[in-house]
Amino acid sequence: MKAKKLWALLVCLMTAFMLFAFTAEAEGELCTHGEEYLQWKTTANSCTADGKYELVCNFVTDEATGEICGCIHETEIIPAHNYTVIFTSKNANCTEEGQETVYCSWCNSVANRVVPKDNTKHKLSDWETTKAPTCIAEGTKERYCTRGCGYTETVAVSVDTSAHEAAEGSVWTQIKAATCYEEGSESNTCKVCNKTFTRAIPVHSDYNVPAQGYEYNAEKYFKSNVKEATCSQAESAEYTCKSCGTAFTVTGAKAPDKHDFTVESKWEYTEGASCKNPGKLIKHCKHNRNHTVEEDYAPHVFEGYERVITEPGCHKDSEGNTVFTPGLKSVKCIYCDEVEEVAINEEKHSFGDWTYLDGATCTSGGTAERVCTCGEKKETVTFAPYTHLNYTVGYYVAPTCLNRGYEHVMCKECQETYYMFPDGLASKGAHTPGEWEVTKKATCTESGERRLYCDICNEIYKTEVIPQLVHTDIVLKEGFAATCTEPGITDYFYCTSCMRTYEQEVIPAFGHNFVEQYTPGEGAVKICDRCYEYEIIKDDGEQITCNCLCHNSNGLAKTVWKIVTFFMKLFGMNQECKCGAMHY
């Protein structure tokens, strides 16, 4: 029995060793039977499993059994499903992943999948000149990715041989004076390359153009129809030359700040406007109604907590009658700290301080009474120890939405200080939701955000994410064909909401196809059969541009030229073409 157990254990150990050796061999170096034995093998994908391409070695290792090597050199996974992209909700770029919706034609399923970031899809800024070229040195310009990925492009700007610059205050030398019919010219020395350069003096250059250094010549021109600059129109004047009668208008600049708000305006305000949400008094400029000035319209809403300034009271008039006098209270605006004083119209007796009876004090308790100043009303009260009946208010703290207010008072008898929490300073215990405010609009490419503020204290009450919009306003726009020299674009989809395009491809320019050649004695003519552009090359390699009929490959032109050539040969006329080549 023991021998059988030992034998079984030995078989298990040998099997494990063989499996380990096979696994080690499989994971070792690839076989070296040669590339001629490598062949791609396909395992088809399905809607439930991935497929794969495998580069397998088919070298026969055992001719008797036909066993092959089977070593796998490369593997490429074929994802499950037969997906086709039907909608791209967000294009991937250099900093963000994209999102697209795909459809499987095998199982009719629709799924959303993430598109990896694409480090080539930058959003480039306009070119900015980092170093302006001069007449002797190159400059540079730069643009960068506005998404903040750090990508920049810098290119050289060629030397501008015409970019001469005169020294400040230098004197221009007139070469030729301008007339009513011909331009003049003047010269100066470039402060960069020290060469002399010229600039044109325009015809009728002595009218008022201060930017060019010329002043108005009243002896030579009539000046009329003068218009002053305003916020909407540029200054201008019409000049008429006394010599030749030529009339022209010279336009200057606008005056952006020259408005006229004398026209009648109207109040435009938000419904329910308050000092927190003010309305606007809008005044329109008479030159352009789009130019306005605004004044805040900010009424307070005095519905907050109240505080009594003077209690209503009473007194005796000269005839001995009791007369009640109103009191005064302050009411706080619910949106700010502004207060309004309001009369308290209430018939109420004017009691003075409490008088303690029979040795009572504020610390021992007892009985107290008080009498109205009119003498007709008396009140008596029994109070517990440490009850302060007569006190003065030092200061008070106003309530907020979540915290109640209080008063800091001092007893007139024992000068003890303490806090009181009257009902008039009670808080609401909660925020009052106002209107939602959109802090970031949602687009077809990004989600937005909105916030709900407390209508009283203006604290943020709630924040919500506004879901990203989908491309709902999509139109198909027509592209345009490429030419020999200019690229074209395919038809593409355009979202009118976010003004973005997708599924648009650039069609490269074809390039010329010089297929027809004529070889007159003085050189060669090559003609593009697409756009009929041509090149004329002399024997010395010089390229010439010529528009003579003999170089046109258009069918009608060729026929006409054949007829012309026939008669030229008939009469022995073989004059030289404009390009220098003989016609035949």
Helix-strand category: mainly beta
Helix content bin:
under 10%
Kindly report the average pLDDT value. 79
Largest beta sheet: what is the strand line-up?
Answer: 40-41-42-43
Percent strand: 35-45%
Largest sheet: 4 strands, antiparallel
Distance between the termini: 114 Å
The helix tally amounts to 2
Molecular shape: flat
Low-confidence stretches: 19-28, 208-214
Tell me the number of strands. Answer: 43
Radius of gyration: 48 Å
Structure description:
- The chain has two helices and 43 strands.
- 7% of the residues lie in helices and 39% in strands.
- The strands form 15 sheets. The chain has a four-stranded antiparallel β-sheet, with no helix packed on it. Strands 1-2-5 form a three-stranded antiparallel β-sheet, with no helix packed on it.
- It has 584 residues and is mainly beta.
